[in-house]
Amino acid sequence: MSGRARGWHALTAVVTIVALALQTVLVIDGAAVLAEEDPPSLGLRLIRLVAYFTIQSNLLIAIATVLLARDPERDGTGFRSLRLAGIVGITVTGLVHFFLLRPLLDLEGASYVADKLLHMLVPALAVIGWFAFGPRPRVESRAITVSLAWPIGWLAVILVAGTATGWFPYPFLDHEEKGWGSVVVVCIAITALFGGLIALYRYADRKLSSVP
Questions:
Q1: N or C: which end of the chain has fewer CB within 10 A?
Q2: 34 beta partners
């Protein structure tokens, strides 16, 4: 089991790092998911890249799976928070992309590949790996708090920064176009989704067999 777990986590880490690297190269070249006709400066493009929740959740998965590839039984307070935040975040990334963003995108070539890696393949590998190899049990109160505080903080920063600059990483957060009523409903729905997924993973963490 340890060998299979190590292999799966390593595979997930490699795919995630490749996806992040490819997307970074595309941003440096001026291409982007939800591309703009007139890309801003390189520095601003890179800042905006990191602002995407997709990128942040993939980064958490990359770090966690690299650590797990080295030690499938890894534990610790910080790691528990990292692991839960990453798996919940990447699950939300996959769900939001599939139901809200996928119909808006018309990508091709390398941009299409990066999009599918970040939004579909990495979430699938991460979630399968969590259920199959854990490690479990790892969900505790502090990890839950961190996992919920991160998206709420992200939403707050994005809304404040977007109001000041006019740029939003996702169209459903653009209150200038959608209106505050719509954006508030979306924020509540996203927060509720996070809460529901955290509860689901906590339940599974307790009920499924301990691994390794």
A1: N
A2: none
